[in-house]
Specification:
The protein is an alpha+beta fold. It has three domains: 52 residues, Transcription Regulation, Sacy, Chain A, CATH 2.30.24; 114 residues, PRD domain (PTS-regulatory domain, PRD), CATH 1.10.1790.10; 111 residues, PTS-regulatory domain, PRD. Helices cover 62% and strands 9% of the residues. It has eleven helices and five strands. It has a five-stranded antiparallel beta sheet, with no helix packed on it. Helix 2 packs antiparallel against helix 5 and helix 7 runs antiparallel to helix 10. The longest helix has 22 residues. The relative contact order is 0.08. The mean pLDDT is 83.
Length: 283
């Protein structure tokens, strides 16, 4: 039987403990209620998930998210993970839990502030990852009911991508090709921005998912479309990012011998702009 000594209570539903000289995150409804540092728990406690966040930055980011999120929102995230797990998707991947926590907490905050982000890949996601999309629909329906809100349908696509990226099985060859390509892409971006990109950020993780999704769609002969005025606007507002995205897409075209719609440059340019914005904030 495992025993856990509490080192920090993040909220009523999440606590940090040590067990066998390892620091772990325990998640469960009400597990942190009236708990104090130094108290011990065993497997009989209301533990729903146990995660070992080995990377210091990942652990600190998760703690920050939980502490800034309202208790009922964090509980809704836990329920979301359980819905995904009950659907047969492996949820012991720490990256998925951190990414979902980050996404749902900030999506809820944006919704409360009437800030809506459109998902240009919503339809493609529904077709390419139909199983993940149906699970994501259950997650969003539960969030709407639990949090008494109404998330736009585009959020289903965002959640589905998190699920799909965790459950997609790629061959070693595919992984090798994608990893080498991503390395080349990051070299181009870092050279053009004259700055090293922080590979530990959520923004970087989202960018990697975008590239993986892009390659997946290209191998299936899929392209996304954007309105001409939107393309012109991005080209005018973010010319350097647009040019960098253009170079990257040309490289991908040569490697996969495919024709890529100009719309893809737009969405890639927006990701690069987010990198640039992060760099400017730190300066």
């Amino acid at each position: 039987m495992s025993r856990y000594e509490i080192t920090k209570t993040l909220n009523n539903n999440v606590i940090i403990c040590t067990s066998d000289n390892h620091e772990v995150v325990l998640i469960g409804k009400g597990i942190g209620f009236n708990k104090k540092v130094g108290m011990t728990l065993d497997d009989s406690a209301s533990i729903e998930k146990v995660y070992k966040l080995e990377q210091k930055q990942q652990k600190e980011h998760y703690q920050t998210l939980v502490e800034m999120g309202e208790d009922h929102v964090v509980q809704a995230v836990i329920e979301s993970v359980n819905i995904i797990s009950d659907a047969g998707i492996r949820t012991d991947d720490k990256s998925l839990v951190v990414a979902l926590t980050d996404h749902i907490i900030f999506a809820y905050k944006r919704l409360k502030q009437n800030q809506v982000i459109s998902n240009p890949f919503a339809i493609e996601t529904q077709h390419l990852y139909s199983d993940a999309y149906q699970i994501a629909k259950q997650v969003i329906n539960n969030l709407n009911q639990t949090l008494d809100v109404h998330f736009p349908e585009d959020e289903i696509g965002f959640i589905a991508l998190h699920i799909a990226s965790n459950s997609e099985v790629l061959s070693m060859h595919d992984i090798s090709v994608i990893n080498k390509l991503i390395s080349k892409i990051m070299t181009i971006i870092e050279t053009d921005l004259n700055h090293e990109i922080d590979k530990t950020t959520i923004q970087y993780q989202r960018f990697i998912r975008h590239i993986q999704f892009l390659i997946y769609r290209l191998t299936k002969g899929e392209n996304v479309a954007a309105q001409d005025n939107f393309i012109s606007m991005v080209k005018q507002l973010y010319p350097q990012c647009f040019n960098t995205a253009y170079k990257i897409l040309k490289m991908i075209q040569r490697q996969f011998d495919v024709i890529i719609d100009e719309s893809e440059i737009v969405y890639l340019a927006l990701h690069i702009y987010h990198f640039e914005a992060q760099i400017n904030i730190k300066r």
